[in-house]
Write a structure and sequence with these properties.
about 15% strand, elongated
């Protein structure tokens, strides 16, 4: 790991950063249990140690942190890379309000498109209903016409 992040001097530093990230930024790393062996005079025993496993993306973020530390400091650099809420926390009040208004406008536009689609569907169903109602009236009229035309002693009773 030390070879992958340029400028990182010890695993202790990386471990402190990871603990800070997990506590302060609500970020979780993947853990795996790696085997290791211990020797005694009589036997060799294999144990498993819980170890953080870093992804390539996380290693890249650590490299960005190393580049940002001289300018921003450790805590700010770590938050900027790993905390999903950091951009909102760092905004000023008027910037935050503008962001909230923009998000609400996007959601309203989505709702308006959905309402328009539902209105079109409703109008189509209304037209289909009216067409079926007309067809039903026509069928009733043809049925009554057929009943009136049949007369005589051979008329079938229903």
């Amino acid at each position: 790991m030390l070879e992958k992040v340029e400028g990182l001097n010890s695993l202790s530093t990386l471990n402190k950063w990871a603990n800070f990230i997990q506590k302060e930024c609500n970020y979780s790393f993947h853990y795996d249990y790696l085997p290791f062996s211990s020797h005694t005079r009589t036997k060799r025993t294999i144990h498993h140690r819980k170890t953080r496993m870093f992804t390539a993306e996380e290693i890249q973020k650590f490299q960005h942190v190393m580049n940002l530390i001289p300018a921003l400091g450790r805590d700010t650099s770590l938050r900027k890379q790993f905390d999903s809420r950091y951009p909102l926390d760092a905004m000023k009040h008027h910037e935050l309000m503008a962001e909230i208004i923009q998000q609400v406008d996007i959601q309203l536009a989505d709702k308006e498109l959905l309402i328009q689609a539902l209105m079109e569907k409703y109008q189509q169903l209304q037209r289909n209903y009216e067409a079926l109602e007309q067809r039903f009236i026509q069928l009733e009229e043809t049925l009554t016409m057929q009943e009136q035309t049949s007369s005589g002693w051979f008329r079938r009773k229903r």
